[in-house]
Amino acid sequence: MNELMIDSRVLLAFLSYIEPLPRKAQPGNNFEWSLAQIEELQLHAIAALSILLPRSLNEYFEYHVGTRLLLFYEWTINDVKEIVFFGKGGRNNKRSQLRYVLRLFRSIVSTRDERIQLDLSDQGIIPSITGYLRRISQQKSIHMDYVDLDVICDGLFILSCLCELDVHRKEIFGSEGIEMLIQLLVVESAYVCGGLGYHRLLVAAIDCVWCCVVGSVINEDEFIQKQGIFALLDLIATNPKSLQNIVLGL
């Protein structure tokens, strides 16, 4: 099956949809898709790649997937309108594309392939994601819906995978990432999907503290200086015992 996909260049066909919209008109093409139809196809292609790409890592480098995805990601964090059905919760912006491309990044870094992690890190994915998560955590401090929660948790997971075993990447995570983490740690549970998504956000944020802060003396000192320890102590005081062991592990 894998050989058939490689020979048929299925992944390359899916990757052809990973580009900013509207797409350029193809010469000789008499049929034109509407913008909504193209966006639907784009999201389905990203969803398919999330499953197929981790099983075909050699094509990642052959097709320059990292560069394609990062360029697309940068496009998604700029506001434009979207009119898609598949991107539920993403009206009047590109939240659905952002949600799905981060899910694709998550599936790729989950392979723990050092070549891929190095490629993404060298292209600046760590400061890009930390910067965006910091902005969104400031803007959404009043309320987070399920799309926001997916974006934030997937972003934190990606950062955790990239920084867990590499001190240099922890240092790239740096001050901006630490400020973002502390902002998330002090979010009140009622503001995260009415409390239903708070456990998920808390687990993702604390895991990110483990992977991106612990192990780097510079990050640990800054986390303490910015009162991150007090944020953790507040979590112990305000959360039920079932969640306290997660915090106490730090």
UniProtKB/TrEMBL annotation:
GO CC entries: non-motile cilium; sperm midpiece
InterPro entries: ARM-like (IPR011989), ARM-type_fold (IPR016024), CFA69 (IPR048732), CFA69_ARM_dom (IPR048733)
GO BP terms, alphabetized: positive regulation of flagellated sperm motility
Source superkingdom: Eukaryota
Domain Cilia- and flagella-associated protein 69 ARM repeats: 3-249
Coiled-coil blocks: none
Listed PANTHER family: CILIA- AND FLAGELLA-ASSOCIATED PROTEIN 69
Protein name: Cilia- and flagella-associated protein 69 ARM repeats domain-containing protein
